[in-house]
Amino acid sequence: MSKKTVNKSLALGILVLGVFMSALDNGIISAALTTINSSFDVSEVQGSWGITLYTLGMAISTPIIGKMADRYGRKKLFLAEIFLFAIGSLLVALSTNFTLFLAARFVQALGGGGIFIIASSFVLTVFPKEKQGGLLGMLGAVNGIASVVGPNIGSLVLKATNSWHWLFLINLPIAVAILISAYLWVPETKNPTNKKTDYIGTVFLSLGILSFMLAITSLDQTNLMSSLLSLKVLGFLLGGIILFTGLFFIEKGNQVKEIDPILDYRLLTNRNFMLTLFMGLLTGTLIAIFVYIPSFVEHRLGVSANQAGIYMSGIGLASIVGAGSGGRFVDKKGAVQTIQIASFISLVGFGSLAFFATNTTTFLITSTIAGLGFGMLMGAPLSVLASEEAGKEKGSALGTLSVSRQVGLTIAPTLYAALIQNGFNSLMPQLTKALPSEFVTEQLSQVNQHSVESTLLGLTDLAASPEKNQALAIFRETAGAAYQRMFLFSAIASGIIFFLSFVLKNQKTHRKLEN
Prior knowledge:
- The chain is mainly α.
- It folds into three domains: 1-192, Growth Hormone, Chain: A, CATH 1.20.1250.20; 196-257; 270-515, Growth Hormone, Chain: A.
- Helices cover 82% and strands 1% of the residues.
- The chain is built from 26 helices and two strands.
- It has helices at 3-30, 33-40, 44-47, 49-72, 74-93, 98-112, 115-126, 129-161, 166-169, 171-185, 199-217, 224-228, 231-254, 265-268, 271-287, 289-299, 305-308, 313-333, 335-356, 360-378, 381-390, 394-424, 427-434, 437-442, 452-460, 466-514, and strands at 196-197, 259-260.
- Helix 4 (49-72) runs antiparallel to helix 5, helix 11 (199-217) packs parallel to helix 22 and helix 15 runs antiparallel to helix 21 (381-390).
- The longest helix is centred in the C-terminal third of the chain and has 49 residues, at 466-514.
- The radius of gyration is 24 Å and the shape is globular.
């Protein structure tokens, strides 16, 4: 192996470590949300802003950092991002009140937002095309591994230290090691230009993303349609539309000016690129399934709450394998064919979850199939498609793709929660119809019906009786129908991606014939 190859591999290893550190953070914090909320004496709704602000910060920073990395140098921006992430982590750990905690989380997000994009752009710039798919798949697998092990690591650190602050302090020695290694061994790559920076376009892009994300995070999962039509949500949506329309005309005007656009007008009018972004959004909705897997196995399959997380293993590990194998498929079969294969597997998996996951065995089989399919989608193929259309603007294109995926990931939990909650609305009428009236009057009137979880706990706490067993059986059947809607939505999303992949293939074929 040549010295040049060794250096490239070493540099990539350093970038991968940075990706793992930033991806691990979201998983780690999920293990300590209740503890953090208690330490600041805030409600669950208020505490959720620790996640929401991190999401907003990443969504805003990702496309901008991708563009800046192309222009000013990927090594420089990687160092800056790691440094900012470390400073944000330190500030989070030292926060004395909830306001400072939220501000520090936003700083941390600005640092973490561009790390994956810089690493992906480095792969697409430095490595030959025949290796890019496999390496991008590996980056996707690293993201998946971090998501799976993050909560476990968070729980271990919390148990060992009895302090949530250490969940963020452990980032500091890792960040220092990455900074030193990257400074010494990561080569600089960039696409220099003498054109002026597109400051106005950057402002419009940032505010547009912020406006849309605020609209999404303002949706009420218990009353989705009503909140969607509220003045607050409609105002943010209208603001986002106006800002993105303004961005479109700004970038159109920049074509004849000596300005380097934040998002190339050629990409904004490129049908293949826009289709890729839409498929990215749909893959984001598939990732959100992870949030509801433990609840499904508890409510539908009767697994205890403390054992429910174990049943994440099939879909989690399969998604990691899928991300890696998807990259290899891209190298051998091309991005479009990989999307066709992956989306079909995902469609079969989620469709099977909807109709056949009636016990733990069938659940593990069907969820593993689903994980394999969407893992393949999450890895290399969409990144390769976006970069092929982007030319030299790889960082900007990958950043925009990442934002579209984040939008899907942000929308989906609210939509899924609404679908599930609506499915459970029929529970009490069914119980009342099927069970003796005296049991309903004496026992079910004591059950807290304000949430699905409290209803299950209330039924479980009832004294043993045939009526209790029948009530629990009705609950499980209702849960199956409620969660079925979520899985069907994911199957439909996979089917749309499958259809669009053929549209994309036809467009690429026509383009080749025209050329």
